[in-house]
Amino acid sequence: MKYAWIEKHRRTYATTMMCELLSVSRSGLNAAGVRAPSKRANDDEQLVRQIRDAQGRHRGRYGRRRMTTEISEVQGRAVNHKRVARVMREHGLQSQKRRRFRVVTTDSKHAHPVAPNVLGRDFKATAPNQKWLADMTLYLGVVASSSRH
């Protein structure tokens, strides 16, 4: 972790100063640069490949919980959910939330004229045959379904 930080900031700060501040020897820093990756690092890389493959199969919908089950089945052994979460976080592999399906029933941007509001929400009549109302919802539903056949 210290070596990676030093490598990242090598152009900004003096290497000798960073080694002293972080209590790291200069020879240890150089040896870390040529050292082969650890078994844990190799396992994490394999885990990342498997997670990316599973995300491709499941359209990126699987988060840490379902991904842990999926990866454990692929590897044939238990994989800790915290490790899966860490690897996914480090590599930016987040689950994509499914967009909520929204039914759109009205088109407010139509070019047709809007009928005048004659009643002004006053639906009470003092005598019969003064105010007439209609519900077009059922009629439009019947017309739309019958036009498909």
Report on the architecture of this protein:
This protein is mostly helical. Among the domains are: 2-34, no CATH class; 39-90. The chain contains seven helices and no strands. It has helices at residues 2-8, 15-21, 26-34, 39-57, 64-75, 81-90, 136-147. The longest helix is centred in the N-terminal third of the chain and has 19 residues, at 39-57. It is elongated, with a radius of gyration of 33 Å. The chain starts with a helix and ends with a helix. The model has no long low-confidence stretch (mean pLDDT 83).
Please render the helix and strand layout as text:
Layout: H1 2-8, H2 15-21, H3 26-34, H4 39-57, H5 64-75, H6 81-90, H7 136-147
Helix pairs in contact: 4-5, 5-6
Offer a few descriptive terms.
mainly alpha; 149 residues; 7 helices; single chain; 0% strand
Percent helix among the residues?
Answer: 40-55%
User: N- to C-terminal separation?
Assistant: 68 Å
Radius of gyration: 33 Å
How much strand content do the residues show?
under 5%
Mean pLDDT: 83
Biggest pleated-sheet summary? none
Taken in chain order, the helices and strands follow as: HHHHHHH
Described by the principal axes of the CA atoms, the overall outline is elongated
Quick description:
The protein is an all-alpha fold and 149 residues long.
